[in-house]
Design goal:
The complex is a heterodimer of chains A (312) and B (292).
Chain A: H1 11-14, H2 19-60, H3 63-68, E1 72-73, E2 81-82, H4 85-116, H5 119-134, H6 137-156, H7 164-188, H8 192-200, H9 205-234, H10 237-242, H11 260-267, H12 276-311
Antiparallel strand pairs in A: 1-2
Chain B: H1 9-47, H2 53-56, E1 60-61, E2 66-67, H3 70-101, H4 106-120, H5 123-137, H6 144-168, H7 172-180, H8 185-214, H9 217-220, H10 242-252, H11 259-289
Antiparallel strand pairs in B: 1-2
Helix pairs in contact in B: 1-11, 3-6, 3-8, 3-10, 4-6, 5-6, 6-8, 7-8, 8-11, 10-11
Chain lengths: 312, 292
């Protein structure tokens, strides 16, 4: 018997760890570390922005002024004030205008692509929506600043075209492809058997969609809208460039506003690390993080509810 | 008997409604994608004349009101490359864990939720994280390294989701056949799962490159500079970047001739769209070639 062939003497010899066994364990460990990295980073984001911003909350912040005042004057030498009401109004007005633009169009597009279109038309539309989603936000901002701005100025005869309307339309266009993609996934998750059963009863395609597919996909569609709104709420560069960036509680769509996100982007570069102004910008970051976290969590719970019901 | 299959008034009404709904929804879909085509057309029309080999390969001049975009282009390549080095291994490991190892328990749910959150956190919050963690805490200063790591964290969900999808597309029977031959989990992954999903993973990485190249907010305070007269030499240098350059020449520099920002925007959007189109074409080709 040649010596390089390992012959097991008994069963316990077969269980002896070899190189392959050690590699397997090592990789399992490495992959596990990679797996929990997502959790580590989310906690890391929270910890590091809190670390920089907490000083403001505990020392300087006057809660009533912070949420109740429209005076955002962090650089005032005399007496700086940190009221974010106007910034909240800016973010809210732009998001509020973007939502009625993006929701009907993306739901209609998702239904058309998912349920009505077929073959080449469907593939082409899907690719176009995907490319639409890929356009960087700074390019959207540029479009708002250089193309939409003169367009709004001329059409409505207003002095400046950088306003709620401009940023709202840009944000609506940006959020639409994301909503469309997620909504289409939600429609795809409805089993074909549901559609076939309805069609066998003689229902037209629209009847199938309205009476069967939409009710079954309801939660997924709600999640799609939520995630799209969340994306718009957190959008930075496009809003910074298209909204006019002046502190205002808007009374008309042609008023310039300033958003929470844009404020951080525009001012962080001018602040001294550790100053009140620097810390308050991180506090705004904590606020943004908290709101998007809640939106994402809600969307997840809504989708999960659907899945549980399906299984039962 | 024959009357049973005759078209009733109800049928007619339903068919008419069907046609109407189809037309309205189709029109809305077209209206959704139409602005993009118009905008692209405008960018090409107004930015096209600015494009030239010289524009791509020369330095900005006269306070960025003339000249080319070379330092911004090179800077974007640096940022994307370094962030790939960081995010691709971690992303693939995470996807392998979720697809090949994870059980359906609370930890897996928490990981999935964390990934959704990571993708949903506003880009400016990622920027704040980059400043707090990489620039200050780890002491990288404002550098390519700090900016790229910030981008890497931000792009992580893109790699994870794309990789997980292509791993899960490998049929379970492939793995079972391999396990039955006595292979370990890792041997199965290396010899069976990865070779069968590598193209899908590449598609995801191309998407990540496109996403990273266009990001602006996360690099503004972590390593990208408004203007630098030299090209970066190491990852500890600051750099210009194409996306930030577009913001700067559009809003921060006075007296820029109109064609210049259009030219920068066109270059940026062409890079992003070409990368995305490559990824889509690659995916379509793969689907056609699939043997199972």
């Amino acid at each position: 018997m040649s010596s390089d062939v390992r012959v097991p003497r008994d069963a316990s010899d077969l269980d002896r760890p070899d190189a392959a066994w050690f590699w397997d364990k090592l990789v399992a460990l490495l992959v596990f570390v990679g797996g929990i990295s997502g959790i580590v980073f989310v906690i890391g984001i929270f910890v590091f922005i809190t670390k920089e911003g907490l000083g403001f909350i505990t020392e300087t912040m006057d809660v009533g002024e912070f949420f109740g005042s429209v005076n955002w004057r962090p650089t005032s030498a005399h007496r700086p004030t940190y009221g974010i009401l106007a910034l909240l109004a800016g973010t809210a007005s732009v998001t509020a205008l973007a939502t009625p633009i993006s929701v009907p169009f993306s739901l209609a597009a998702a239904i058309y692509i998912g349920e009505f279109a077929s073959g080449k038309v469907r593939e082409t539309l899907k690719v176009l929506v995907e490319l639409l989603a890929a356009i960087p936000s700074v390019v959207w901002g540029f479009i708002g600043f250089s193309i939409m701005n003169p367009m709004i100025r001329d059409t409505f005869d207003v002095p400046v075209g950088l306003c709620v309307l401009n940023a709202g339309i840009i944000l609506g266009l940006m959020a639409a492809p994301i909503m469309t993609t997620i909504a289409e996934d939600a429609l795809k998750a409805v089993p074909d058997g549901f559609r076939e059963a309805a069609e066998a009863m003689g229902a037209t395609r629209w009847q199938v969609v309205r009476r069967v597919v939409l009710p079954a996909a309801k939660n997924g569609l709600v999640a799609a809208v939520l995630l799209g709104v969340g994306r718009g709420f957190g959008e930075t560069m496009a809003v910074l460039m298209a909204s006019g960036h002046s502190i205002n509680v808007p009374t008309s769509p042609f008023d310039s506003v300033r958003a929470l996100t844009a404020t951080i982007a525009a001012e962080l570069g001018e602040t001294v690390s550790g100053s009140d102004h620097y810390r308050v910008l991180f506090t705004l970051g904590i606020l943004l993080f908290a709101v998007t976290f809640v939106i994402n969590l809600t969307a997840d719970v809504v989708v999960r509810g659907r899945r549980r019901k399906r299984r039962a | 008997m024959s009357s049973m299959f005759q078209r009733t008034a109800l049928n007619a009404r339903n068919e008419q409604r069907e046609r109407m709904v189809r037309a309205v929804f189709g029109l809305m879909t077209v209206l959704l994608v139409l602005p993009v085509l118009i905008i692209l057309g405008l960018l090409v029309l107004r930015g096209g004349p600015a494009l030239s080999i010289e524009f791509l390969f020369s330095e900005p001049e006269k306070g960025m009101t003339a000249g080319g975009i070379l330092p911004a282009l090179v800077g974007t390549i640096w940022l994307v490359a370094v962030s790939l080095v960081a995010s691709v291994p971690i992303g693939i490991a995470a996807a392998l864990y979720l697809s090949e190892y994870a059980k359906d328990n609370w930890l897996t749910r928490a990981i999935n939720l964390a990934i959704i959150n990571l993708a949903g956190v506003p880009s400016i919050v990622h920027a704040l994280f980059g400043v707090g963690a990489f620039v200050l805490f780890f002491g990288f200063g404002t550098s390519i390294l700090a900016a790229s790591l910030t981008l890497a964290v931000m792009a992580l969900p893109v790699v994870i989701v794309a990789t997980r999808e292509s791993l899960q597309a490998v049929p379970m029977a492939f793995r079972e056949a391999c396990w039955n031959m006595g292979a370990t989990r890792w041997q199965t992954i290396r010899k069976v799962v990865l070779p069968n999903s590598i193209s899908g993973i590449l598609t995801g990485i191309i998407l990540e490159v496109s996403r990273t190249a266009g990001e602006t907010a996360p690099i503004m305070f972590t390593g990208a500079a408004f203007f630098l007269p030299f090209l970066p030499n190491t990852v500890m240098d600051q750099t210009m970047a194409l996306s930030l350059h577009l913001y700067v020449v559009t809003t921060q520099v006075p007296n820029v001739p109109e064609h210049l920002p259009y030219g920068v925007a066109l270059v940026l959007i062409l890079i992003v769209l070409i990368l995305n189109a490559t990824s889509i074409a690659f995916r379509t080709w793969l689907r056609g070639r699939k043997k199972w």
